Amino acid sequence: MEPGNETLVTDFVLEGLANTRELPSLFFLLLYLLTLLGNALTLLIVLCDPQLHALPTYGFLGYLSFLDACLSPVTVPKILPGLAGPSSRTISFGGCVVQLYAFHFLASTVWFLYTVMAYDCFLAICHPLRYTVVMSRRACVGLAAGTSLTGSLHAAIQAPLPFCLPYCGPNRVEYFVCDIPATLKLACADMATNRAVILANIGAAAAVCFLLICRSHH
User: What is the pLDDT of residue 86?
Assistant: First the structure.
């Protein structure tokens, strides 16, 4: 295609999950509702029981349930209408950016929260006498807020990179969300630098979390 004839893409078509076209929409709707119900019940139990929400471990568990409950609506509501037909699977360019940011923000915050929960278990098992002093309410709130801040920074780096490139067509994303690997395949420019930065960012975050979890269980 000659540069002068390129038409920039203004929306994408999400192809959805492979080998799921024959499954009824009710199946995905049921999984979606069960996920929300399970997380809501966990959060409700932690909040309603004074003995539980006073403990850091269950506070982190309640926050984890909240994040997971928020993660499902980022993707599933787009899958359900997408099963009805091609026209329902379209997402705007801007919507794709927002979805990618929200997906990486929530998912990476969950990674970092797992790391904090591993450290919490380490303190509770190996240093029980110091546990209540180190894991004070202020420290727990700070750690939870830190996971969200780190997750937002991680997503802020990840989300814009695929969309700094021009997209001239085709616009069919072979996935159920605007994830980075599936979206980068459609770019009509050299993506080596973008891909390297994305992999370095993900690799660094995963490596730090892995090493901290291993250190806490040493």
Answer: 53
